[in-house]
């Protein structure tokens, strides 16, 4: 299985901050990476797919990039509704696998 | 707008079979090139992909669960189902169904249902 190592596991930030979350794949996965946001008690919500493609309706302050096997989710200006847990997921090779999650706290 | 809804028992005894159904509304499970997936989230919050089924009937299961998992679909009822046999306390989790759009990943999810394995 492809291992997805996500960091940090948690972070504290303020409204208006720029936030970066990283996910490293254990092998090459091309651009087959998605990011999800999960609020407490809710299902994960797709934010980006194909590394950097924004899902319909997702604010443009969310963006994604890659360098080799290191994938990055950036929130350019943190908003109150962005405090949640974020997960990366590779869908290059089955079984699909997820990062451990990053909790973004106030 | 596609919506998915999980249903099934919230409590299952050890060694028994967990059975869940995901009902899809707002679209047909036999249209489009989608894969209908099951996933679960453990109490510690880790996410695990269980497997998926295509409307053609082809399936793929996570090798870690393959010997215990069956995913099926019923196009007449527009739903798909999960069966997980020989459950233990380690199978306690929130179970989600989702639509896998291939290159567009898991775009639609059900709200999730907690299944507890306990005697």
Number of strands of chain B: 11
- Output mean pLDDT of chain A: 97
Secondary-structure content class of chain B? mainly beta
* Silhouette of chain A: globular
Number of helices of chain A: 0
Name the shape of chain B in a single word: globular
- Level of helix content of chain B? under 10%
Percent helix range of chain A:
under 10%
Strand content of chain A: over 45%
Q: How would you state the average pLDDT of chain B, rounded? A: 96
For this entry, what is the oligomeric state of its chains? Answer: heterodimer
Radius of gyration of chain B: 13 Å
Give structural notes.
- The complex is a heterodimer of chains A (106) and B (119).
- Chain A is mainly β and 106 residues long.
- Chain A is built from no helices and eleven strands.
- Chain A has strands at 4-7, 10-12, 19-25, 33-38, 45-49, 53-54, 62-67, 70-75, 85-90, 97-98, 102-105.
- Chain A starts with a strand and ends with a strand.
- The model of chain A has no long low-confidence stretch (mean pLDDT 97).
- With 119 residues, chain B is mainly beta.
- Chain B has strands at residues 3-7, 11-12, 18-25, 35-41, 47-54, 59-61, 69-74, 79-84, 93-100, 106-109, 113-117.
- In chain B, the strands form two sheets. In chain B, strands 2, 4, 5, 6, 9, 10 and 11 form a seven-stranded mixed β-sheet that branches.
- The model of chain B has no long low-confidence stretch (mean pLDDT 96).
In a nutshell, what does this entry contain?
The complex is a heterodimer of chains A (106) and B (119). Chain A is mostly beta strands and 106 residues long. Chain A has strands spanning 4-7, 10-12, 19-25, 33-38, 45-49, 53-54, 62-67, 70-75, 85-90, 97-98, 102-105.
